[in-house]
Fold this protein.
Amino acid sequence: DTQAKRLHEYKRQLLNALSIMDIYYSLKEGSLADFTPTAFIFGAKAAPGYIRAKSIIKYINEVANLINSDPDMKDKLRVVFVQNYNCSYAEHIIPAADISEQISPAGTEASGTGNMKLMLNGALTMGTYDGANVEIHEAVGNDNIFIFGMSTPEVNQLKAEGYNPEKIYNSHAVIKSVLEKMYKGINGATFEEVANSLRHADRYMCFADFDSYRGTQAKASETYKDKCLWNKMSLINIASAGIFSAD
């Protein structure tokens, strides 16, 4: 399960990381049965002065350290943040990917090209109806892509009505639990500023799309168990990728 792209809040690597923490604690508690073993791979860089993005990178790395050092997660769950992600890494990661994470909130991604490369190499897109995901969806059909989350009109409507992430935080047990771990610290590192940015602003609506995202991840995990179906979906994506040819 791969999310390889520039590190930016609108790309929502943080939504992915919050979901991974939910998976981790659910596995620890035994409430997540029959989980498909998954390796989550992040590849990203932050702009030099983008302090919050660097904090998110630190958070994902601490999540990785927590999970990868837990013997209970052996052969179940792994998290990798590739250092100094570049084309050489991409040449290995993109062909290996089964799932392509393209999870920016609808209306924020002008295009996107990484999703095209991953599609061409057989990865199935898990994403919002945004950017080039729209064209991928049109090319492969609804049965060969995992679309989740709000549409652009729904995002705009929620903004107009007055989006209140603090209300979601107080009423959503999973989100509250994951953020409390950020406040308390992971391996001695706390992430109060990142947690507060979600609670009091959540500019890119991670909370609003969280349940839809987790549900779609579970659907993809279940679909992956049917190897014949998964390979068929993968081949349909490869065969449909010609619309993105630069030639």
Q: What stands out?
A: The chain has a mean pLDDT of 96. The two ends are 29 Å apart (CA to CA). Residues 206-224 form the longest helix (19 residues).
